[in-house]
TrEMBL record:
GO terms for molecular function: metal ion binding. Residues 1-63 form the HMA domain. InterPro entries: HMA_dom (IPR006121), HMA_dom_sf (IPR036163). PANTHER family: HEAVY METAL-ASSOCIATED ISOPRENYLATED PLANT PROTEIN 20-LIKE (PTHR47856), OS08G0512200 PROTEIN (PTHR47856:SF2). This is HMA domain-containing protein. It comes from Ensete ventricosum.
Length: 88
């Protein structure tokens, strides 16, 4: 069994369309959606490229999750504290 992490540009309305699309792909056993950071975790035996192709076919922009996305999601959720210094 394989776990595939994807970054999917979506709003709350797209989650239903995403789940419906992925339900038609053979080999997917579980789908977890973290809408706040636009991350989708798919568990199963499906081909990675077929999953991305299916999502793009229904109009969702999808790409494989990378370390760059992890950094961006950390900033987007506000998990990182910024120190502001005044030099003047």
């Amino acid at each position: 069994m394989e776990t595939i992490e994807l970054k999917v540009d979506m709003v709350a309305l797209h989650e239903k369309r995403l789940r419906k699309c992925l339900s038609k792909v053979k080999g997917i056993e579980r789908v977890e959606v973290e809408a706040s950071i636009e991350k989708v975790v798919i568990t199963g035996y499906a081909n990675r490229n077929k999953i991305v192709k299916a999502l793009r076919r229904v109009g969702l922009r999808a790409e494989f999750w990378s370390a760059h996305n992890e950094i961006l999601s950390t900033y987007a959720t506000g998990s990182v504290m910024f120190n502001t210094y005044s030099f003047f």
